[in-house]
Amino acid sequence: MSLFSWFSRKPAPPKPRPLAEPSGLLNADATVPLTPGRQSKPLVEPLPPEHAANRKNERMERRELLYTVVRDAMVRAGVLSASYKFKVLSLDQRGRQFLVMMDLAREYGGETVRLSEIEALIAQTAKTRYDILVTAVYWRINDHVAVGIPQKGVAPQGAALQAAPALPRRPAPVA
Predict the structure, then answer these.
(1) Which of 39, 59, 93, 161 is the most exposed place for a label (fewest CB within 10 A)?
(2) Which position has the higher pLDDT, 3 or 158?
(3) Which residues have C-beta within 8 Å of that of residue 13, sequence separation ≥ 6?
(4) How many domains does one find in the chain?
(5) Structural domain of 106
(6) CATH number at residue 106
(7) pLDDT tens, 3-32?
(8) How many CB atoms neighbour CB 102 within 10 A?
């Protein structure tokens, strides 16, 4: 034993972990070892880059299918295509879960019961036809969606020119 060992800290003994009851939830990443296997080869082979491109194509195809579902549901509900805009967001990498964001003109957004029926129609149709899960539909009432409906307080340019009072013309001075 050296004199210097008195001044240095001793490493704390490792604390034994209590045995916990399994929660029933499985974590897939917990089964993959962090260190590589023998001969420095990883135990889990990385997926080829073609797989990621294939997943992206699959997600894009499902997005297009959901576009048709939303358009069909809006036609069934009697909403004109010029009166709404929508976006679709994928919630997973495979494109099985989506959420829909709808911008709707003011004249169609008055009845929330009707909007919930349209939402249910979108979710049910997507699930039965294409096995796509629509987890939520978000609605926003927006005056800028409708085509040809002017905003309040903003007049078209032609109306501004017509509404301006005509200035009286003075005859040119005669010399």
Answers:
(1) 39
(2) 3
(3) none
(4) 1
(5) 55-148
(6) 3.30.70
(7) 667 777 776 666 666 555 544 444 445 455
(8) 24
